[in-house]
Amino acid sequence: MLWQMKRCYISEDYNVGVDMRQYGFRGKSSAGEWHYGLLAQSAGFPGQPIAGMYISNSVGAPYAYRVIPESVGQYIEKSDKNGNEIYEGDILKDSDGRILLVEWFECRFCLKALTETNFIRALNIMEWFESDFPYPEIIGNCFDNPELSEESK
Questions:
Q1: C-alpha span between 120 and 65 (Å, rounded)
Q2: Contacts with 98 (C-beta within 8 Å, 6 or more apart), sequence order
Q3: Are the CB atoms for 111 and 95 separated by under 8 Å?
Q4: CA distances from 153 to 8, 136, 150 (A)
Q5: What letter does residue 127 receive in the DSSP assignment?
Q6: Could you report the per-residue pLDDT of 103-132, keeping only the tens digit for each?
Q7: In 3D, which of 136, 150, 151 has the Cα closest to residue 100?
Q8: Is 113 helix (H, G, I), strand (E, B) or coil?
């Protein structure tokens, strides 16, 4: 489930603009189910839910699922070659057989190489998807499939 929100920005040439972005997160509950929605964090103060991270459901607040913080990933506004939404923490395989991890690095999403390549990190992930390269395919994620990143080392 994704939400459209306005985002204000200042471009490199100092022009101010507003655009629409799709926001969404996913997280895994202790019951092993993935939940998709907006992210909220509770400090557990009186009148608040138990301390932790929560993903809202389709009904919205106050209905949300408590999720494991390490499993939370943000939607990167791109899909793989099969049309599946790509989230931070997903492990991808490109047309050359390279295994890549989607991660947040230096204030942007990037692709971290998990197999031997001529790069460690592709810093501009959006250019990757806007180029003529075939779209990669999601083969797992670092939370459910840690062996994918371990085997690649």
A1: 35
A2: 113, 114, 115, 117
A3: no
A4: 40, 20, 6
A5: H
A6: 887 777 888 888 876 666 666 666 666 666
A7: 136
A8: strand
